[in-house]
């Protein structure tokens, strides 16, 4: 059995729309951070620290090193992640939307299906007909709870501006078709499930038609679904016959959560 990593990293050096910062405290600097944090919990401790007193000195540690520490400041939509209904709106199917920590874990370890949609252009959408055609190509009929992965190849643009401007979106008709087949989770190797801003926003401003603005996301107010964004390496997968694991990190009351998504291939 092979384990194939389908995830992108959280990388502060990659091009992103939202600010990402990773504070990296080295082994050498760790003891200083430890003293500042521990002594800073009381007024007396702060005074002692300002006067040069320390609880632990680096000379007391093996190799004069403490422990490293990384502090990540990033939106939950950075890196590979699962979106749930709270992200789409405050209500789904006329009831309060659910948050990512409520995603049923049994949905997150299921048979996987990869659909080849690499022919779709950045200004196009993947519709129900495209899904049906891709299924016919691999001669597969969807089963309830299958995790369907839409392969566009856009993950190869990660790290630069093109990752946010050159990928196809997902039409609500495709989501409706998947939900009708009993699918709870589908995933994309793109930045998002709607078309890039340069197409979507331009069309919305010209037409003033609300149906052109985030139609895939807003469909989540009508029907509950979970989707994975920012997948990678889907070209390494067969059309079917593998497992997908996509357990979300448990963060309270968020519309999305990071996940290390992998495929198990025999």
Account of the protein in words:
The protein has two domains: 2-9 and 77-265, Putative cyclase (Glucose Oxidase, domain 1, 3-Layer(bba) Sandwich), CATH 3.50.30.50; 21-73, no CATH class. The protein has helices at 27-39, 43-50, 85-88, 128-137, 172-180, 197-207, 215-222; strands at 2-5, 21-25, 69-73, 81-83, 91-92, 95-96, 109-116, 125-126, 147-151, 169-170, 185-188, 226-229, 242-245, 256-258, 262-265. The longest helix has 13 residues, at 27-39. It is of the alpha/beta class. The protein contains seven helices and 15 strands.
**Count of helical regions:** 7
Which architecture name of the largest domain does CATH use? 3-Layer(bba) Sandwich
H/E order of the elements? EEHHEEHEEEEHEEHEHHEEEE
Helix/strand class: alpha/beta
Summarize the structure.
This protein is of the alpha/beta class and 266 residues long.
What keyword list fits this structure?
Glucose Oxidase, domain 1, nine-stranded mixed sheet, alpha/beta, 266 residues, elongated, 7 helices
Strand and helix layout:
Layout: E1 2-5, E2 21-25, H1 27-39, H2 43-50, E3 69-73, E4 81-83, H3 85-88, E5 91-92, E6 95-96, E7 109-116, E8 125-126, H4 128-137, E9 147-151, E10 169-170, H5 172-180, E11 185-188, H6 197-207, H7 215-222, E12 226-229, E13 242-245, E14 256-258, E15 262-265
Parallel strand pairs: 7-9, 8-10, 9-11, 11-12
Antiparallel strand pairs: 1-15, 2-3, 4-12, 4-14, 5-6, 7-13, 13-15
Helix pairs in contact: 1-2, 4-5
